[in-house]
Structure formats: C-alpha cells, structure tokens
Design goal:
The protein is α/β, with parallel strands linked by helices. The protein is built from 14 helices and 12 strands. The structure holds pyridoxal-5'-phosphate (PLP).
C-alpha cells in the first residue's frame, strides 16, 4: 500500500511521544515526575459541567449549525469586544473542535502550494506541520533569549517575501511562556500592515498571566491591522477544558465562511451539549479562572527559583502560560539526549526543545502539584550535576 505523500512530510508529535513513555513507565509502577503536560491539572469548574449536563438532559443532542450554536457565537462576539477590544459580530466567529482545529481550518482555507507562512521559533509543534499538510512553506525565524524568545519587527520585515501570506503570532507563548508587550505588538502590526500580509493571533493562553503582564490582541490596535487579523482561541487552557474540544476562530466574513465550508465537510458542528458548557464558561463568574491562575503563579515562583539555582541551567522569567523553557546548552547535551537520559536516570519527564525548533532548550510544564515540582527539581538538579561532571 502506498500512503499519500503528505504523511511522510509530517512528523508525529514528539511531545505526545515523551508523555506516552512517561505514562507507560508510571503504569509499570515506576515513580515518574512528569512535567510534560500541555494541559491544566485542574478539573473543569462545576458550573460549566452542570450547564453541559443540563443541555444533555434537555435533549441538545442533535446536529446543530456547523459554525456553532447561535447563542455561543453571540457570547463569543461579546467576549471578543469586552476582553480583547475586537469589533466582531456573531457572523465573524465560528466554533471549532479546539484551538488546534481553528488553526487547521484556517490554514486549509488560506494556504496553498507557493504560499509562505512565517513562524517564529521556538514555536508550538503543530504550526509548521499544518502548513506542510496544506502544501505551503513554513518559514521558520529563529529567536533567542536576547529578545526573550520573541520575534522583532526587524526580523519579521526581513523574512517577508512576495510569497508571504501569513504570520503566526502566539502570545503568551507555548513553549516559552513569554508575553509580547504593547510596544512589541505595535511594531509587528506596523510590519504586517505595510507588507499587506495576514496575521493569525493564537491567544489560547490569554488568561494565564503573571506579575501584571497584559495580554494585547494585535487586531485591537487599529482598523488596518484588524482587517488583516484572524484570532484563534479556545476554552482548553483558561477554563481547564482540554478534553471538551472547544475552540473558536474570528475574522473577516470571507475567511470565516471559507473555514466553515472546510469544517462543514469534515467535522460539522462541535458536540452540541458541550457548547452549552462553553456558554456557561463565558457568562458565569470568572473566579475559577483566577483561582487556577493563582495556583500556577505559586508553582511558577518555586520552580523558577529551583531552576535558576541549578548551575548549568538558565531560565528567563516567563510572564504567561504554564511553561518554563530553560537553556541547557552548558550541559553540552542536545535536547533529545538530555530528555531521554533524564527520564532513564532520574525518572523525570520533560519535553525536548527540538520539538519546538529549539535544540538548546527543554520545556518544563508546571501544570502539576507542588510536591511533584519539589521532588522533580531535586532530581533534575542531581541529573544536571552528574552530566556537567
Ligand atoms: C493547547 C494549545 C492550542 C489549542 O489547544 P486545543 O486543545 O485544540 O484547544 C493552541 N495553541 C497553543 C499554542 C496551545 O498550546
């Protein structure tokens, strides 16, 4: 049997592979400290679950409009206005099976062979793969700690060619946890408008911020940039709803129409009763979001202090999300070697930076309890001391 060529062009997710190995070790009774999670460790808040249960009991179990329940689209349009300063109508918003699906729909609707998509590295694993599946060319722009792992306006300008169609912006960032400032976003917006390209803003971590950092939606900075922006977001991270598969995409009527045509021929509507949970998430009290954020904030303090006390590692302070992205280059190990040896020798699971296009780093998630953080950091310290001789 000959599989389609596009399969050989994409790599299976390395993040899932390490997490799977750690899980298998745990199942064998091995005491593994896992920092590989890309999801909050909290249960979904009760009022959100209750709303979905109620919808289920009321028989909201049929096909719905492929673009989402009208009530949810309206609630999303209000949210985008209030939280993000974006002037969308309900018709500019579609509900998807998660933030990942939002991006996939968008890229399939927009990108074709010959199109270039600018992706700053370190990047979220799926961005380049999605572009490749669509037949486009991912243009990776490397960043380092000197700019806080953020692409500068100058770097963006230099990467644009006549084939550039789209720029992918992710703030707060997975894997680095970095948050772009207002000035940085303004400068990037200027480049996007000057070059007349599009930007997709992945804002999935917008609610998880620390030390007074502010989330800026690039599309809120003026009419010209608004017209060139598509927003991708979802409920997974902020509301701890990863398994619900609920996301949304917002943009011009033309783009939303095209993306919904793609969705209409693939998944159709998102699980109908789950969408009622999403309405409750948006319209209910936001205390649950703040409680989770405060728990993350405490863990972040502890982990960062422990990490930076390990000779041979250095880690800038992240302002958002729930990841640390320390530099391991002083150990002279490449990221995959580092992670395999760490898992074997000290039973600690972290993700190799190579998965995000950054081979001198590892990603450590602090979406786990404090006891695991303390124990895991002890083990990591022992490991780094051993490999550094
Ligand atoms: C988790 C994540 C998403 C989307 O996740 P879904 O579960 O599909 O909603 C999108 N972008 C980034 C950067 C993420 O980390």
């Amino acid at each position: 049997m000959k599989l389609a060529g596009r399969v050989s062009q994409v790599k299976p997710s390395l993040t899932l592979a390490i997490a799977a190995k750690a899980k298998a070790m745990k199942a064998d009774g091995i005491d593994v400290c896992s920092f590989s999670a890309g999801e909050p460790d909290f249960d979904t808040p009760a009022h959100i679950k209750a709303a979905a249960k109620k919808a289920l009991d009321e028989g909201k179990t049929k096909y719905g409009p492929e673009v989402g329940e009208p009530k949810l689209r309206e609630a999303l349009a209000r949210k985008l206005k209030t939280d993000n300063g974006l002037n969308y109508k309900a018709e500019n918003v579609m509900v998807t099976n998660g933030g990942k699906h939002s991006l996939f729909n968008l890229i399939l609707a927009l990108i074709e062979p010959g199109d270039e998509v600018i992706i700053p590295a370190p990047y979220w694993v799926s961005y380049p793969e999605m572009v490749t599946i669509a037949g486009g060319t991912p243009v990776i722009v490397n960043t380092d700690s000197s700019t806080g792992y953020k692409i500068t306006a100058e770097q963006l300008r230099k990467s644009i060619t006549p084939h550039t169609k789209l720029f992918v912006l992710n703030s707060p960032s997975n894997p680095t946890g970095m948050v772009y400032t207002l000035d940085e976003i303004k400068a990037l917006a200027e480049v996007v408008v000057d070059a007349d390209i599009l930007v997709v803003s992945d804002e999935i971590y917008e609610k998880i911020l620390y030390d007074g950092a502010k989330h800026i939606s690039i599309g809120s900075l003026g009419e010209e940039i608004f017209a060139r922006t598509i927003v991708s977001n979802g409920f997974a991270k902020g509301y701890s709803m990863t398994g619900w598969r609920l996301g949304y995409l917002a943009g011009s009527t033309e783009i939303i129409k095209a993306a919904s045509t793609i969705q209409g021929h693939s998944t159709s509507n998102v699980c109908t009763f789950a969408q009622y949970g999403a309405i409750a998430a948006l319209e209910g009290l936001q205390d649950c979001v703040e409680e989770m954020r405060l728990a993350f904030a405490k863990r972040r303090e502890v982990m960062l202090e422990r990490l930076n006390a390990i000779p041979g590692l250095s880690c800038p302070k992240p302002d958002g999300a729930f990841y640390m992205f320390p530099d391991i280059s002083k150990t002279k190990l490449k990221s995959l070697e580092f992670c395999s040896a760490l898992l074997e020798q000290q039973q600690v699971a972290v993700i190799p930076g190579i998965a995000f296009g950054a081979d001198d780093n590892i990603r450590i998630s602090y979406a786990t309890d404090m006891a695991t953080i303390e124990k895991g950091m002890d083990r990591l310290e022992k490991f780094v001391r051993t490999v550094s001789g």
